[in-house]
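ESCALATION

Customer reports they have been waiting on this structure for their group meeting. Please prioritize. Original submission:
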Amino acid sequence: MGEPVTLKEEDVVRIGDYVKPWLRELVGRTAPRAETEIGAALLERMVRVEEELRAQRGLMDERFGFMERRFQAIDKRFEAVDQRFEDLIRELDKRFEAVDKRFETVDKRFGDLIGQLDKRFETMDKRFNALTWMIGVGFVVITSLTTVFALLA
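Update from on-call: job pushed to the front of the queue and completed.
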């Protein structure tokens, strides 16, 4: 290819003036037919889009219904689990109450045993005190007797 052709502004204006009447006539002949074809195509596409949107809405409603049922099923499961925990807590409370009762009976028995042991220790303490006094009196008597016999002898 050769060098590009440079046009002056007045050349471009002359070419435009020459082509304008033909372009108007060409566009005038093809435009109405093209507009009606484009309009029909657009109308057909709009109808298809509306139908597709309607179908999508139906599918969405159906899926939302499925999700709602699934959430209800999950809620039922949570309620069942809550009920199981409540039953378990009640059972544990019963067991703890039984253990508390057993501890109370054990405390009562030990309280009685401790009371009996206290009485026994008190009686033994009295006996040891009496024995201590008897031993003390015995030493005094023996010491006194040995002193008296030492003086008399």
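Sent to customer with the following note: The helical segments are 9-152.
Escalation resolved.
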